[in-house]
Amino acid sequence: MSIPVVDFRSYSLGEKDVRADQLQELSGELKQAFTEIGFVFLQNSGITPEEVNKVMEIDKKFFLQPEGLKHPFSRQSFPKSPNHGWVSLETEKLNPKRPGDLKESFNTSSFHPDIKWPSADFLEIHRSFFQRCKELSLRVLRVMALSLGLDPDVFIRAHALIGTDENKTTLRSLYYPPVKTAKENQLRCGEHSDYGSITLVFQGSDGLQVCARSGEFIAAPAVSGAVLVNIADLMQRWTADRFISVCHRVLLPPEGDSCTRQSLAFFVHPDDEALISCCDGSSKYPPITAGDYVTQRFNETYEQAEG
Ligand SMILES: O=C(O)CCC(=O)C(=O)O
Ligand SMILES: [Fe+2]
To answer: What are the tens digits of pLDDT across the range 16-29?
Structure first.
C-alpha cells in the first residue's frame, strides 16, 4: 500500500481552460485516494520547488537564531490572531500521550497590519506563498466537491475568507533540529490528524508516516516537485465520513543521525462563521461552525501540552 500520485497538470495553477473530462478524471483519482487512504501526492500543481525552497531558506535562518531573537514573534503575542507566530521546541504534543514534539514552528495565520514580522522579506515571501497555497487549495476543494457529485462550489463558498482574520487557515513552517538526546517515547511529531478541511504538505526530506487502513504506518516520502494533500477532521465530518482523515507522525531519525528536517504545512480551514453540516444531507454529525470546531481542538492540544 502506498500513497497514490496524481498528475494535476490539467488544473495546475495558471491553467485557465480545463476541460470537463479532465476535471472528471481528476475527481475520480482524488475520490479514490481520499476515500481509501486520506492522502494523495499531486504532481504538476503549479507550485514549484523553487518557491518552496525560498520559504524554507528564510525560515531556516529564522529558526537558527538564538531564542531571544525569536521570542518577540511568539504564538499568542497577537491577540487578534492567537495562533499566529513562533512555537518553541517541545511546546506542542500532537499526541498527548507522548512528551512534547521535537520541532519548532512558525505559524503564519494573519496579515493584519498590527503584526510584527522578523523582516519585510520574511513577510513578503510568506504572503506570496500563502496566496499560492490558497489558490491551489481552492482548486483541490472544487475537484473534491465534483467527485462527490455535489455543487462544485459548495466547499469553496465556505472558504471565502482565507487570509483574513475571519478564517483560521494557517501556513506552518516546521523545523526539526538535530536530535541529540530524546525522552522516552518522544517523537519529532506525535501521532495526530489535522483539524481543518484539507492540508497541503511540502517536505524537504523524508520522515512523515501515514497510518494505513491495516493499522500499519507507511512512508509518505518527499516526492520531488509534488505536494502532499490530506483530508483533515472537519472535512471527514463534513463528508459524513466519505473522505477519511488519518493519523500521521514524524519519527526520530536513527540514533547517531544528526539530520535536520523542514516541512511546510498549509492547514486549510473553512471561514469561522461557516456552518458545517453533513454534505449528504444526513445528520450523522450535528452542524457546527468551523470557528467553534477548531477552537475546541486547539484548546485540547495546548491544554494537554501545558499539563
Ligand atoms: O512535518 C511534516 O511533514 C508534517 C507535520 C504535520 O503533520 C503537522 O504539523 O500537522
Ligand atoms: Fe499533520
So the answer is: 999 999 999 999 99
Domain limits, the chain: 5-306
Residue 130 DSSP label: H
Query: CATH topology for 5-306?
Result: Jelly Rolls (2.60.120)
The pTM for the full model equals 0.97
Looking at all shown ligands, the one closest to residue 170's CA atom is 1
Q: Give alpha helix (H) positions in the chain.
A: 20-36, 49-63, 67-70, 120-147, 154-157, 233-238, 290-306
Q: How far is the CA of 266 from the centre of ligand 1 (A)?
A: 10
Of ligand 1's listed atoms, the one at least distance from the Cα of 172 is 9
pLDDT of residue 135: 98
207 C-alpha to ligand 1 centroid (Å): 10
- DSSP output for 198-236: EEEEEESSS-EEEE-TTS-EEE----TT-EEEEE-HHHH
Residue 307 has a pLDDT of 37
Compute the mean pLDDT over every residue in the chain, rounded to the nearest whole number: 95
**Ligand 1 lining (C-beta closer than 6 Å):** 172, 174, 189, 194, 201, 203, 208, 248, 250, 263, 265
**Predicted pLDDT at 1:** 80
Instruction: Tell me, letter by letter, the H, E, C secondary structure of 152-178.
Output: CCHHHHCCCCCCCCCECCEEEEEEECC
Q: How far is the CA of 167 from the centre of ligand 1 (A)?
A: 20
Q: Which residues of the chain have pLDDT under 70?
A: 301-307
Can you give the pLDDT at residue 254?
92
For the beta sheet containing 85-87, the strands, ordered from the edge strand earlier in sequence to the opposite edge, are: 5-7, 39-43, 227-231, 198-203, 261-268, 170-176, 104-108, 85-87
Interface predicted TM-score (ipTM) over 0.90: yes
For residue 261, with 0-12 CB atoms within 10 Å meaning exposed, 13-18 middle and 19 or more buried, which class applies? buried
Q: And the C-alpha cell for 204? A: 524537504
